[in-house]
Amino acid sequence: MTALHDLTLAQQSQALSSGQTTSVALTRHALDRIAAHTDLGAFLHVDAEGALAAAAASDARRAAGQALGPLDGLPIAHKDIFVTQGLPTTAASKMLQGYQSPFDATVVAQLKAAGAVTVGKLNCDEFAMGGANENSAYGVARNPWDTDRIPGGSSGASAVAVSARLVAATTGTDTGGSIRQPAALTGITGIKPTYGRCSRFGMIAFASSLDQAGPMARTAEDCALLLDAMSGFDERDATSAEQVRLHDGSLTANAPGVIGRELDALSQAAKRADPARPLAGLRVGVPKEFFGDGVSADVLATTRAALAQLEALGATLVDVSLPRTELSIPVYYIIAPAEASSNLSRFDGVKFGHRAAKYTDLNDMYRKTRAEGFGAEVKRRIMIGAYVLSHGYYDAYYLQAQKLRRMIADDFQAAFKVCDVIAGPVAPTVAREIGSQTDPVQEYLADIFTLPASLAGLPGMSVPAGFGEGGLPVGLQLIGNYWQEAQLLHAAHAFQQATDWHQRQPAALA
Ligand code: GLN
Q: Is 177 touching ligand 1 by the criterion CB < 6 Å?
């Protein structure tokens, strides 16, 4: 029999319902594997006791003959940006060392309600700021394909845990690429939903107008299972969507189950039409700005081969243009720090988190607490943010960035007049070596292909598309129009039925 860690989420679910294994066995196996691979730096906290208790409860539900959803009894782990009742939550910052939330983030609560078993909390960049997992206060996370390399970030360890098969699926958050880029660099699948699909309640805020939760797993099928359970309207998040648009243009309540049903309908329709060409009729937009200078030759070649594969599956390629792609970097690196500087003002040593041991007065307490608690990149963002929001600079930077953000979103709508999804690279290169980038601006430039969809609030995903230099994974990015996650997942699933990139695994961890 296949080793338990080689089973995808869907296969584990199948093995549970057919009685081939138990949730306790799956959970024990995951815990053992996590313990054997601590060198990867993936977990900040493992809750063996809580996980085994939740697994036993799931097995008891099953034994009692209860009707169970597909995630019931499956071990998963959360990025340490989600607050979790009874487990520490740090956002990978010293600022929140020892912090325990009195409640669960909505996404965590929804996955728990679906029966998923939380095995622990995953490393990431501090407050999700970064693209390499090097900004964690608790050490780097390592890419399983080459442990001297970064796994990407900020959901770096969420990607590592899946890529190394410690667990079959994890949660991540994506503000400017933090699900898609680490998924690409570690050879797994990840999707950032439309802004508003998943609740941000209990997700420690970085840039509130951009932050979205999403799933990371080996396959599109598994991402769909997780996303289906994570999504839904939440009155505790003011920007949570009450309604979502279905593929046929009609509106429906934003709730768990919607994506699963749409996906079923899409795959039924494709099967009825022409099973050999499941993507027949799909117009894939190829933005020229995503295929120019700055993309390394190996990523370019791999991405083009993936486009050809989509064509072979029945899709039609259409040339489109996203003319403001380059501007997405200055726009994002004004708006995200501006919102961060405001969001992070709550960490002042008064109510929760770190407080300096010695201080003279209140201002001194704030100053010392924040100087000690935040890492260098977080401080840099707070300073940039405070600067662009300050009197005299607000109009020149922040307001201007807001206007350009709107134009970036308009460019996508123009493109979606002639195509259904947009495809291109996720990151300009394969994973770099740990410690090899010391210039923050150079690091920001590498976000060029993930920022546009974030700024527009559009859903985007990364699908394993092959390997580049050094045998390192390359991801294909698929961007959809608002609420078209099912269409993205359908296209990605069809691609994965025809390719085996997502099944490859790092040799050292087999
Ligand atoms: N790399 C980007 C940044 O550093 C994106 C981070 C994210 O999506 N959380 O801000």
A: yes
- What is the CB neighbour count within 10 angstroms for residue 247? 17
d(CA 270, CA 305): 23
Do 39 and 147 meet the contact criterion of CB atoms below 8 Å apart?
A: yes
Is any atom of ligand 1 closer than 6 Å to the C-beta of 443?
no
In the block, residue with structure tokens 């190996």: 298
For residues 191 and 174, what is the distance between their CA atoms, to the nearest angstrom? 9
Instruction: Give residues with Cβ within 8 angstroms of 185, minimum separation 6.
Output: 143, 149, 150, 151, 152, 159, 427, 430, 431, 472, 473, 475
Is residue 348 lining ligand 1, measured as CB closer than 6 Å?
no
**pTM of this structure:** 0.98
Of the residues 127, 129, 454, which should be mutated to test ligand 1's pocket, given the most ligand atoms within 8 Å of the CB?
129
- Rounded Cα distance between 103 and 109, Å, is 9
The answer on pLDDT for 1 being more than 80 is: no
The residue type found at 129 is M
Which atom of ligand 1 lies closest to the CA of 333?
Answer: 10
Q: Which amino acid is at 83?
A: V
Q: What span, in angstroms and rounded, lies between the C-alpha atoms of 219 and 497?
A: 10
Strands 189-192 and 117-122: unpaired
Ligand 1 binding pocket includes 336 (Cβ within 6 Å): yes
Helix axes 297-312, 485-498, angle to 10 degrees: 90
- Percent of the chain scoring above 90 in pLDDT: 96
Look at residue 199 and tell me whether its pLDDT is greater than 70: yes
Dist CA 506 CA 163 (whole Å): 8
Question: pLDDT for 309-334, tens place per residue?
Answer: 999 999 999 999 999 999 999 999 99
Is 94 noted as a catalytic residue in this protein? no
pLDDT tens, position by position, 57-96: 999 999 999 999 999 999 999 999 999 999 999 999 999 9
Assess whether 154 carries a catalytic annotation: yes
User: Residue 32 Cα, ligand 1 centroid: separation in angstroms?
Assistant: 31
Catalytic site residue from 155, 178, 341, 454 = 178
